[in-house]
Amino acid sequence: MGSAEICFCFLVTPQTLRILSLQENAESMYINWFNRITTFMTLRMFEQMKRFFHISEPVRSLPRCQWYHKLLPLADELQQRFQQYLRPASAVAIDEMMIRFVGRSFHTIAIPGKPIPLGYKVLALAERGYTFGYIFTSRVESFAGQNAISEYQNPIKLSPTSLAVLKLCLQLPYEENRFTLYCDNYFSNIPLFQVLRTFGISACGTARINSAEFPKVLKVDKKKVTLAWDTLSAVQVREVLAVLWQDNNLVRLLTTAHSCQEHDGKDRYCRRPRETTRNRAAVQGVWGPQAHRNLSVPALTADYNDNMGRVDIADQRRTYYATQLRVARNWMPLFFWLLDTTVINAYIIAHELYPTHRAYKKDLRWKWHEDLAWELVKEGYYELNPEHARHRETNPHASPNGSSCPGSIPTGNSHESRRKGYVLKYYELPVCRKQPVKHALQHAGKERLCVFCRYLRTPSPLLSPELRNTLLSHPQAPRHNKTRQSSYQCSYCQLFLCKEFCFSHFHDL
Fold first, then answer.
1. Spatial separation of the C-alpha atoms in residues 228 and 225, rounded to whole Å
2. Which of 38, 62, 154, 264 is the most buried (most CB within 10 A)?
3. 303 conformational bin, left if phi > 0, alpha if psi -120 to 50, beta if neither
4. DSSP letters of 295-355?
5. What is the 3-state secondary structure of 314-326?
6. Cα distance between residue 475 and residue 405, in whole Å
7. What is the pTM of this model?
């Protein structure tokens, strides 16, 4: 079994495989691949494939601290590619990602408040959902591969967590561009922000009351002191600005990218917070009876709320079509996470290059995953049987495949389905109608539904509403949105078409 088949099986979910196996219009070009994967692959065959699947050379014994060793060649290569093909914007965020795994491992972490309460924790640097860098973490071994940073020559001592954040930030092209890092209170501290500033990287994030070197004057107990809404206090500690702001609750922030001037506020559409005995007076004085209101908030809090969720966007996109399976080997969940992250990053790059393509719209994410899986099958097929592939490319009656494998096109796009008049939502007109040959009407001796009438009748995102209305307004167009039957067909395309209107417009559209 080739590598393309293995990637196909991991990328396509079992539900998609069942749907694809029921399609009777799979092209003969891919029938061998299609049958081997969707029809003749038994449960035992798939289990054997998963059993012997590996991505690095087998090692007889590994020390416990090198639990990520099997993933290291692939993880390093992918991280290098992620940083090569996209340069992030100025606002980046660092946060934790969880990979679900409930098996036996010394390195899983339990966080009850997370959507995934048990599994591996990954420290990730992301920008708009694009995962730019990552470090695997462990419950017993801290951060994986945490080596000395050659660029770090500052006498300020940092904790292992801060060193991991610094290592991710130094992977950015900070010498050529300016970046602002956003992080939560788990990572924010004054020594880290001061060291990042020496490299030209500004930072902003919430802080805990016991974070390193946080000024004592701002260590106010929120349970004992109630301040007026929008009360703002700031203290500078070694080029880092420590801020205390009264919102619905006391908010502590650290920043090296903002100031606390009066004109630095930004307007935001704020929702009325829940009233308690402690904040009732402040909430009623600011919001009154309104549920929402436009308020001026400090710029650093507005920027933090706008940019902190960039890692969460990657988590959200990955959960839509996750490929992770139930496994016993402790490195397999990390592989599935790398596979999903690669697919999401490729989707973001493709969306940036071709923003108007229909496969990159929000409601067609399944089309991207399906096309990607079939392109892997197509690549493997061209390597195994190039002569048959070239023969299928020169066949004038081959179904249009666009950028994907013909087997992945929905029912209605095969040659037999078109002859029967089966036209669905994403029907594509065949390429044979544009061949520079003679297209003539001939009597077929039987009647079938007109393909072009059905095409105009079915609302499709591939045909603009303006062009569709223009065609239907023609005097010879089908009336009342009906599909006519015809006993004539094109001599070359072999499709049934109406003699008066559809034949000419089908070949000229």
1. 10
2. 38
3. alpha
4. EEEEHHHHHHHHHTTHHHHHHHHHHHT------SSTTHHHHHHHHHHHHHHHHHHHHHH-T
5. HHHHHHHCCCCCC
6. 38
7. 0.68
